[in-house]
Specification:
Its cofactor is Mg(2+). Belongs to the SELO family. Belongs to the TRAFAC class myosin-kinesin ATPase superfamily. Kinesin family. Pfam families: SelO. The chain is an alpha+beta fold. It contains 16 helices and 13 strands. Strand 4 (164-167) and strand 5 form a beta hairpin. Helix 9 (409-426) packs antiparallel against helix 10 (432-457). The longest helix is centred in the last third of the chain and has 26 residues, at 432-457. The radius of gyration is 24 Å and the shape is globular.
């Protein structure tokens, strides 16, 4: 069981709030530290089922090269499967009138966003490869019409998914796809399943008081970040294309009572599945009559997305003690749902560790925004750290409590896993020990992955808690640019004979406007760092290559998005397409693209650029 660790840090926001677990998990109340440099280095080890996380990561890496090169289909030849609507209970009604939809996982509904001469803004050829879609299809005059939802696709069975969720720690009941409509699932020649979804395609029964549309501003951000995160090697949903609708959408961007007409747009999102934690929570919350729906949905998920868990054989290596003082064990072969919950927990932990690696802050980590597959999903008010600030949140709605700030993300991930396992326990798929064990595995997986990441980011031979802790503390004090600092760190030579007054020369571009006292603190740290590097036996050149392969030069800073948005709103899509190209290879130098690695300009601090609401 994870330790309950105090997280009050002098350099983090005093508004950071403690997170509480649901009543079914009160006995555990596990707590991860708010900022990674306070993680304990010692963790209990289990002799357990080998996690499939590594294989999942390898599969994601292969996506860059996936796609059978000699299979190129036109749109009409795509192989639609539609297992979700064929195998799970659906809503008998097909209208889009907002309502409570009971005893159903989805509602069949057609895209309904009005369009007028829709235009193709941007597209991803690497996603087309996953679908085995011929890139020439992007040149079709009717392509924007088809992917605006205005022209039906033969074989597709569009629907909106029904799910619930906790929003900012409070159960919100039914939520569902309020403006996203899944076209269906495509099977490629490798039998890989890909769900295509149009975001901004119109009203559904889950739209509540909203119009079901999306604006160009938020759609550009979602399209670009989906592909940028993939370039960074982080598990994510993908984006095939982005089209304008040619129609205006009224939005009050700052919630200040001054709405304005903005260009409408639709993103075609792609993922193996858009199932979320809330997909299971909703039905578990509705009483025993819906427990069978939770089981059916879990069986469906395992059958198509975790098939290795279907026919496990008993093996001593996956019988795991849950506590050093408790001789009882969790045998994951005896309950596939327990094995599944553990894998979901570990995938989630691994994903969030990668977020912390690159300074990504999701902004809205509600349980309805947590993917069952450990994918980054639902790009709303996200942001990458510019200045190193553990309390940073890109979401104006989150400012009062900063629940979803950068430093809190590991804790929130654990809290969300607790809600997920609570739902499975309520539906009688897990017992309490199995639920607790899934949460414990989340904590161990996160700390293992994060320590490995930080070791590689600094080019060390082994994890050094003190050295890394001091570094992150110094970065937070001086608000050092997170991305550029780690990239510059590879310029330091492992030479203990360098004169003291030259130690900070490799970091001059990132240690700006620091006084004498802070200069002394940094000099002391660099000395310790060089001493540690000198024991690795790795040459400076080799280490630089290695560090630059994990510390990106380019990230999707908010001001870059805003520049592309400003141009696109004037019908110039060139900057969106250029950003997409740069973000495909964030670890490469790309000498002609240096401007995309610059620090944010002064105008980037204006409202609406680096602080965003959920109005989209």
């Amino acid at each position: 069981m994870l330790s309950h660790i105090s997280s009050s840090l002098s350099h983090t926001s005093s508004t950071t709030t403690a997170l509480l677990f649901s009543s079914t998990a009160k006995s555990l109340r596990p707590k991860l530290p708010f900022y990674p440099f306070h993680f304990p280095i010692q963790q209990k080890r289990h002799r357990c089922m080998a996690s499939s996380i590594d294989s999942v990561a390898n599969d994601l890496k292969k996506q860059r090269l996936q796609g059978t090169k000699n299979v190129k289909l036109n749109i009409e030849e795509l192989n639609w499967d539609n297992s979700f609507v064929h195998e799970l209970p659906g809503d008998p009604r097909t209208d889009s009138i907002p309502r409570q939809v009971l005893h159903a996982c989805y509602t069949k509904v057609l895209p309904s966003a009005p369009v007028n001469n829709p235009q193709l803004v941007a597209w991803s050829e690497s996603v087309a490869e996953l679908l085995e879609l011929d890139p020439k299809e992007f040149e079709r005059p009717d392509f924007p019409v088809i992917f605006s939802g205005a022209s039906p696709l033969m074989g597709a069975i569009p629907y909106a998914q029904n799910y619930g969720g906790h929003q900012f720690g409070t159960w919100a009941g039914q939520l569902g796809d309020g403006r996203a409509i899944t076209l269906g699932e495509i099977l490629n020649s490798k039998s890989q399943r890909w769900e295509l979804q149009l975001k901004g395609a119109g009203k559904t029964p889950y739209s509540r008081f909203a119009d079901g549309f999306a604006v160009l501003r938020s759609s550009i951000r979602e399209f670009l970040c989906s592909e940028a995160m993939h370039g960074l090697g982080i598990p994510t949903t993908r984006a095939l294309c982005l089209v304008t609708t040619g129609k205006g959408v009224m939005r009050d961007m700052f919630y200040d009572g001054n709405p304005k007409d903005e260009p409408g747009a639709i993103v075609c999102r792609v993922a193996q599945s858009f199932l979320r934690f809330g997909s299971y929570q909703l039905h578990a919350s509705r009483g025993k009559k819906d427990f069978e729906i939770v089981r059916a949905l879990a069986d469906y998920t395992i059958r198509y997305h975790f098939p290795h868990l279907e026919n496990m054989t008993r093996n001593e290596s996956i019988s795991c003690n849950t506590d050093e003082e408790d001789n009882s064990a969790v045998d994951l072969t005896l309950n596939k749902y327990a094995a599944w919950a553990v894998e979901v927990a570990e995938r989630t932990a691994s994903m969030i560790a990668r977020w912390q690696d690159v300074g990504f802050t999701h902004g809205v980590m509600n349980t309805d925004n947590m993917s069952m597959l450990g994918l980054t999903i639902d790009y709303g008010p996200f942001g990458f750290l510019d200045a190193s600030d553990p309390s940073y949140t890109p979401n104006t709605t989150d400012l009062p409590g900063r629940r979803y700030c950068f430093a809190n993300q590991p804790d929130v991930g654990l809290w969300n896993i607790a809600q997920f396992t609570s739902a499975l326990s309520t539906a009688e798929l897990l017992n309490n020990k199995e639920a607790d064990y899934a949460m414990e595995r989340y904590g161990n997986k996160f700390m293992d992955d994060y320590q490995d990441i930080m070791t590689r980011k600094l080019g060390l031979a082994k994890y050094n808690k003190k050295l890394i802790g001091e570094l992150l503390k110094n970065m937070a004090i001086d608000k050092v640019d997170y991305t550029n600092f780690f990239r510059s760190l590879s310029n330091i030579k492992a030479d203990p004979t360098i004169p003291e007054d030259q130690l900070l020369d490799p970091l001059k571009a990132v240690l700006l406007d620091i006084g004498m006292e802070r200069k002394e603190a940094w000099t002391s740290w660099v000395k310790s760092y060089i001493q540690e590097l000198s024991t690795t036996g790795v040459s400076d050149e080799e280490r630089k290559v290695s560090m630059n392969s994990v510390n990106p030069k380019y990230i999707l800073r908010n001001y870059l998005c805003q520049s592309a948005i400003d141009a696109a709103e004037q019908d110039d899509f060139g900057e969106v397409r250029q950003l997409l190209k740069v973000m495909r290879f964030p670890f490469d130098e790309q000498p002609d693209m240096e401007k995309y690695a610059r620090l944010p300009p002064a105008w980037a601090n204006r409202p609406g650029v680096c602080m965003l609401s959920c109005s989209s």
